Every structure is written in structure tokens, then in C-alpha cells.
Amino acid sequence: MPLQCLVNQVRTYKHNSTPQIWKEDGVKYGLVTYYPRHKNHVDPPITPTKLFLIERVKQYKGIPYWEKQILKNINLHGEKNTKHYAVVKNTPEMCSILWKIKHLIKVTPLNAPDKLPEPESVSTYLHENGDLLIFPKVDKSRYEATIAFKKDPKRMDGDTLAEVLRDKWVNPME
């Protein structure tokens, strides 16, 4: 019987580093090295927004206590539904906090005008896509004219108009 030799097989893992041909193509931004697709690629100028609209998209139930604490600090806690919104500043500290719960939230940049008007003179609406719409407040005379028009008995609203037209359709000779 021939002598069988047992040979141990050892797996060798190769460290996957950046290929040598890419080394000179990298552009360094602080601590991050960016490798553009083309050598003459130039990034468009980006002006970061000052505020973020944060929406919770996952359930509050079943997540670890430290993530619940972060959600509570941002005021995104609540058991009933997942559609909770909050507006936070775009600071490095807040971005590092949001990075810890990125699987629970949706971050939308808030597009607001550079100079916000006084809060007494306008009314605002925050859209889902992050647009902050600013409307001037309606003056009192225009508001009273609208109320008077709606209460006018001679006005033909949709229900009255539908009823009159239906009567004319059913009884055309009258």
C-alpha cells in the first residue's frame, strides 16, 4: 500500500487594493479619493442646501433602543404610522447622526429661497419633494369678496347647475 501524504490546502486571500493603473487618475477630496470615469471629467458645482426634510419610512417597532433614541431626538418617534417628517440643519454633526439611521429614513434636500420673508406677511407650504412654496397672505378685502361671492344666492354652484341642466335634459319642452 503506497503511503498517502495528506497535504493541507491553505487559502490565500489577495488584498483587493486599488489597481496600479488607477493610482494617478484619482482626485483627492479631503479624505476621499474619487476616480472619475473619464480623465477630463469635471464635476458640476454643487451648492449644498441649508436644510434637510427627513421622512421616517420604516417602523418604529422592532429597532434597537439606540436607534429609537436618535429618532426621538430628531422628533421622528411615534408608533402609529411611518409618515413622520422633520426638518433638520445640514451640518456635519447632523449628517453623522443621520448616517447611523439611514436605513430608517429618507432624506430630501429642502429647496428654500435664500432670503426668507417675514413670517407675518406670508403663508408657506412644504411640498413632498422638498420645495418650500411661499405665498403672500390674502388681503382682507379680497377674502371678504370671495366669501360674499360664495354666499350669493344668485351664484350657480356646481350642484345647482347640475340639477338645472338635468331638469332641462329630462323635460326639454318646459
Automatic annotation (TrEMBL):
Coiled coil location: none
Molecular-function GO term, any one: structural constituent of ribosome
Biological process (GO), any one: translation
Bilayer-crossing regions: none
GO cellular component term, pick one: mitochondrion
InterPro entries the record matches: Ribo_uL30_ferredoxin-like_sf, Ribosomal_uL30_bac-type
Protein name: Uncharacterized protein
Species: Trichogramma brassicae
